[in-house]
Amino acid sequence: MSAITTLDDTLLHEVALTLFPNIGPQLTRQLMSYGGSARNVLHLPPGKLRKIPGVGPATVAILTGAGRTAALNQAEATLRKAEQEGVQLLFYTSKQFPSRLKHLPDAPTLLYYQGTADLNQPKTVAIVGTRKATDYGREQTERLVKGLVSHRPLVVSGLAYGIDIAAHRAALQEGLETVGVMATGLDKLYPPAHRKTAEKMLTQGGLLTEFPFGTPPDKYNFPARNRIIAGLADGTVVVEAARKGGALITAELAQSYDRDVLAVPGPLGSAASEGCHELIKANKAALYSEPEDLEQLLNWDAALHLQGKFKGPATYNANDFTPAEFGVLTVLQAAPNGEEHLDTLAWKAQFPVHQVASLLLGLEFRSVVKALPGKRFALL
Fold first, then answer.
1. Residue closest to 112 by CA, chosen among 178, 182, 12, 33
2. Rounded to an integer, what distance in angstroms lies between the CA atom of residue 277 and that of residue 342?
């Protein structure tokens, strides 16, 4: 292989680690936790690899045989193509990797990203729905996006026909950044009919995927794509959905991640809204009828977020708290509005989510922090 810089060498091995067959995100993290870095993992001798829980003879053979050379060669080609196309390769340990995804059990380990938007924006909303959108659904999507303009959220969807593309186009029209999560490689845009919209998104948002260059639109990729849409956002709004479909999968995934879900009710008897009605009836989604519904559920109350309305952060004495408690308080103090989502807080404090939840409960009893809707916490 050609000479590369130290930084490129790190990324080269990280990308290579994601390209081995039968080594998924969970095993990749397991390998990283023992090896310390992707480079170390790919140079561990067979004896040490076998001592890692979950690593069997087949995995050892893949990591130490001809497969390693093939993965490194493919990774080098990937880095070169990414540089040519202006694509960012975000390994899960990167600071630019979306923090909302980091602690999800099935989170991807590498993302391919092309665009200008910050994937860690303070406010992010997913808008999804049926591919067979009605005029009513498209109108409600445009109305929904217009109602959120004052918050300047990042709008996330799947670039598909119907509600997805309506959400992207409405965001572009209103001057909001919007990111499309793809079920293909970035060089295999699908559907091709949305290319012009996708090109606009590159300068007002972006395109994101976990799939390597050259990956075609395989039907199994779409449900996997939906988990990224659900995980990227503070909340997911389903505008129109039939009784079965990808939008309902996204809603179920969002709920499993403890993210808020809302659904727009439709005309009675409309097949395109049956899924939304079922979500609301089963208490799997809150009813969305106006922007305030989402603002309250996600704690996006406009008055709370106006600049100049915040009290300065309190000063805490480290001696009054355990090191772990003080670490959590330090993260909250550094937050833009003195508040963070539980998952983000755990990631920034570098503690497991269950431990942070326990710490926050204790701090609540001591009237130091308060719980907010949407699993967010703030200083008192």
1. 182
2. 29
User: Could you tell me which residues are beta bridge partners of residue 89?
Assistant: 112
For the question of whether the overall pTM of this predicted structure is more than 0.70, the answer is yes
pLDDT tens, the chain, 380 aa long: 343 444 488 999 999 999 998 888 889 988 988 888 899 999 998 989 988 888 888 889 889 878 889 999 999 999 999 999 999 999 998 888 998 998 788 899 999 999 999 999 889 999 999 999 999 999 999 999 999 998 999 999 999 999 999 999 999 999 999 999 999 999 999 999 999 999 999 999 999 999 999 999 999 999 999 999 999 999 999 999 998 888 999 999 999 998 999 999 999 889 999 999 999 999 999 999 999 999 988 887 643 333 333 333 455 666 678 878 888 888 888 776 678 888 888 887 778 888 888 889 888 888 888 888 888 898 87
**C-beta separation of 154 from 117 below 8 A:** yes
Q: Cβ distance 168 to 157 under 8 Å?
A: yes
